[in-house]
Design a protein that fits this description.
This protein is of the alpha+beta class. The chain has one domain (about 1-140): START domain (Alpha-D-Glucose-1,6-Bisphosphate, Chain A, domain 4, 2-Layer Sandwich). The chain contains three helices and seven strands, in the order E-H-H-E-E-E-E-E-E-H. A seven-stranded antiparallel beta sheet has the order 1-7-6-5-4-3-2, with helices on one face. Strand 6 (about 85-100) and strand 7 form a beta hairpin.
Length: about 150
């Protein structure tokens, strides 16, 4: 079974500023509550390994999810894919300029390979998107270098 969640939220920030956050795979990894740790695997920063701890009975230790940004269109779109023995994930982030800033449209698809994975994400993807929104809001309050 596959779980698909689409959510968007409005931000009072320029699309380019939102891009700075969302195009960084490490920022996205930090925002996900079940990512215990992560490491960047290439000099371009497109490949990141997440160490995921899922609170489900069939997974007793962290699972490595190899993620990679497969599409980046500055300043409007990022798509990443992640694969592991437990789940596959795809995330898409589209930044749409609005009169007051921008809207970040998010699509996440999780395909579980073990019992309980889809159920966990079906119950928790909304909270994970909220974590992403909060992390982005915190980042937007931080002055940029320049």
């Amino acid at each position: 079974m596959t779980v698909r969640v689409e959510r968007s939220f409005e931000l009072s920030a320029a699309p380019e500023r939102i891009w700075e956050f969302i195009a960084d795979p490490e920022n996205r990894a930090r925002a996900i509550s079940v990512v215990d740790d992560f490491s960047t695997n290439d000099p371009e920063g497109r490949k990141v390994t997440w160490e995921v701890a899922l609170p489900i009975p069939v997974v007793r230790r962290t699972v490595s999810v190899e993620t990679e940004d497969v599409t980046r269109r500055r300043p409007e779109y990022v798509k990443f894919v992640g694969t592991s023995r437990v789940l596959d994930v795809t995330g898409e982030h589209t930044i749409v300029e609005t009169d007051t800033g921008a809207r970040l449209e998010n699509v996440f698809v999780v395909d579980g390979k073990l019992p309980g994975v889809e159920t966990f994400f079906k119950r928790n993807l909304d909270a994970e998107i909220e974590n992403l929104r909060r992390a982005l809001q915190r980042d937007l309050r931080t002055p940029t270098e320049g």
